[in-house]
Amino acid sequence: MAAVMGYADRRSVRVGERIQFKVSCEGAPAYKATIVRLLSAQTFEPPHAPKFRFDVMPAPVNGEHKGRHHPIPAGSYAEIPTHPKLARLTTCTFAAFVWPTLPGSGEQAILGTVDGAGGLGLHLDGEGRLALVIGGQHFALPRKLRPRRWCFVAAAVDADSDTAILYDREVELYQFDALAGAHRRFEHVPIPAPSERPFRIAAAHEGARAIRHFNGKIERPRVLGRALTLFDLERLALAGPSGPAHVDAIADWDFSRDIGSEIVSDLSHNGLWGRTVNLPTRAVAGSNWKAERHDWRAVPEQYGAIHFHDDDIYDALWPTAFEVTIPAGWKSGTYACRLEVGDAEFWVPFFVRPRKGEAKARSAFLVPTCTYAAYSNFRSRVEGRWSELYHGRVTVLDRTDFLMEEYPDLGSSTYDPHRDGSLTLTSSMLRPVTNFRPTGRVYKFCQDMFFIAWLEHAGIDYEVVTDDDLHAEGMAAIADYACIFTGSHPEYYTTGMLDAVEAFLRQGGRFMYLGGNGFYWRTAYHPTLPGVVEVRRAGQGFLASDVERESHMSFTGEVAGTWHRVGRPPNLIAGVGMVTQGFDASTGYRRTEASRDPRAAFIFAGVTEEVVGDFGVLMGGAAGYEIDRHDVALGSPRHSLRLASSSNHTNVYDISVPSFTDLVPKPTEAVPDPIRADIVFFETPGGGAVFSVGSIAWSGSLSWNNYDNNIERITRNVLTRFIDPAPFQMPESQ
């Protein structure tokens, strides 16, 4: 069956700049490409949802292209460029500390230059036993390494006597059932032949490909220039992974250095530095971690391991199929490259901004690309056991969803485990992403197209700014606009992004938070690699895995977890914060007495109903999916108005509450139903204002009854006032 997939080298592009598209086509000699401007999404929810609409753009690349299939080079490793000292190894010792997660699941390389029948390497064989590989021959210890146990492993090769010693010893701190060291001496071992292959850690060679990926952690790998004795190996194991370069080091790689980068540092005088490939996980606890510090920056020597996975993927590295330079006549907005072959299609969205300094609209849609990246290739929706329980219905899949099953090397989202069970902590957009498209499930990008459809229907002038832009440029990315408004689910935010929005508000900007579960997880972009984010879910119970002891970002060193956990709850910026989620039904909001306050009169102009949003294409209402509530104790401004609140949510929302203790009222308190979404408004000291709806489902009510409804009216009222230059006034008493 024919299939086509693609991705772009960026998600945001200005007029006059170029964007490159990478495409793989399988099962057909050619595919069709079309550049379009997206005006709405395909929702399958008539008659109240917008019809699927897009305009074909005049682009030279439109039409048929020759189909070429490209593999996805999944699997992480470290690589050191070819060097004579590593290419001509004969008498030598390989050594490392390892923490295997899938021993016995196939042969896995620890370090070396093995390529088919050539090269020299230290591996785990298919049964999980330590093995020396020389010229295609395997010499293995009889016992298997135990999973998730730190073990010192080594192979000493003596070319003068044609012998080798293999040695392993469990060494993990506080491990009271550790096995004693095991070793075996092998006679008549062949002399290693020279190899021109780069030296690899955690992978072997098959021509230009990387194969036999190691699953687990590797710490302080070394290549020494003599064959150590059994006594020397024992001393090296007990000495641990810290300390200066070994006196006999040809290469001595210390992963506790340059943790926030791709660099692999060599402590030897030979300068055999390398780089990581496909973003293995750094800033992870090593064999000598003492439970004293959870910040790798304080004790980097205890975080000197790298966790490699055979399903890590950063960049698919496909060649450019074609590129587009954005013409001057293209409006800022949401675009896509549509790829088609037979009855299969694939979408590659991107966002066009005006030239720098040429913004013309008063408002900007803040596209949550950071969240799109965190969710990219969300496998748990398809494979997770809890998905149908949460949604209360059978999961509906289409052909694009099934690409994740057909092509497992596409990688996962930050909600999915690696094959070895560890949680995925980084996610990249430089690969085909099956759930970043205007079709399929109405969620994330597809759902955010409801806002685009509304803006286009209403004839409201707007431009777009992405999270990528906001992080890279700071407040300068949004400074030209009077009002910025979010998508339905701006969940993932970096420090720079949050700082930029706060600076915008301090200078009198107006902010419309039109979603739910926003500003929830602290996120980090890689300092040098584009298109990739890091998420560590410290403090989150069943999601935590090892991130409690590895609770600081490897990219930036920042403490990880929710913004509430690290001291900047979303209530401070939006007036509301995440309380719960439910995926079975949505409800409406009932207005409060505060909605009659003269300060809020413009919001409800033309609205006569007491209940608003009790309709919508997203589970029947404007308040649902994931919801946020007003809470002064968590930072909602004291002068903020709680204008309306939802109620009567199903018990599915109850079981999804992040923290029950946060919701239990004190005995003396009389509080509204804590399971609710709140509409909130407040002014800011610089003449600006904030309007928040606290619900992901809000956008699904805009188009109801052909846009003739109270949710559309409220949203339009607020945006109209927010782009009006007249300043807002803070109330006298706060």
- Regarding CATH, which class of the domain at 77-308? Mainly Beta
Major sheet, described briefly? 16 strands, antiparallel
The unreliable regions are 663-669
Strands, count: 43
CATH architecture classification of the domain at 77-308 = Sandwich
Q: Percent range for helical residues?
A: 10-25%
SS class: alpha+beta
The average pLDDT is 93
Q: In what range is the share of β-strand residues?
A: 25-35%
Distance between the termini: 65 Å
Shape: elongated
Q: Figure out the total of helices.
A: 14
Radius of gyration: 28 Å
Would you give the CATH topology of the domain at 77-308?
Answer: Jelly Rolls
Structure description:
- This protein has 734 residues and is of the alpha+beta class.
- The protein is 13% helix and 31% strand.
- A hairpin with a 4-residue loop joins strand 10 and strand 11.
- Helix 8 packs across helix 9.
- The longest helix is centred in the middle third of the chain and has 14 residues.
- About 1% of the residues have low confidence.
Short description:
With 734 residues, the protein is of the alpha+beta class. Helix 8 packs across helix 9 (495-506).
Descriptive key words:
734 residues, alpha+beta, Immunoglobulin-like, Jelly Rolls, 16-stranded antiparallel beta sheet, 14 helices, 43 strands, elongated
Indicate the topology.
Layout: E1 3-8, E2 12-14, E3 18-26, E4 30-38, E5 54-56, E6 63-66, E7 77-80, H1 84-87, E8 92-100, E9 108-112, E10 120-124, E11 129-134, E12 137-144, E13 151-158, E14 163-170, E15 182-186, E16 199-201, E17 204-206, E18 209-211, E19 216-224, H2 230-239, E20 249-254, E21 263-266, E22 274-277, E23 281-284, E24 305-308, E25 320-325, E26 333-341, E27 344-353, E28 363-367, H3 369-374, H4 380-383, H5 387-391, H6 403-406, E29 426-428, H7 445-458, E30 463-466, H8 467-473, E31 483-486, E32 492-493, H9 495-506, E33 510-513, E34 521-522, E35 524-525, E36 532-534, H10 571-574, E37 577-587, E38 589-591, E39 611-612, E40 623-629, E41 641-646, H11 651-655, H12 660-663, E42 678-683, E43 689-692, H13 704-707, H14 710-722
Parallel strand pairs: 2-27, 28-30, 28-31, 31-33, 32-34, 33-43
Antiparallel strand pairs: 1-3, 3-25, 4-5, 4-6, 4-26, 7-16, 7-22, 8-13, 8-19, 9-10, 9-16, 10-11, 11-12, 13-14, 14-15, 17-18, 19-20, 19-24, 20-21, 21-22, 23-24, 26-27, 29-36, 35-36, 37-40, 38-39, 38-41, 41-42, 42-43
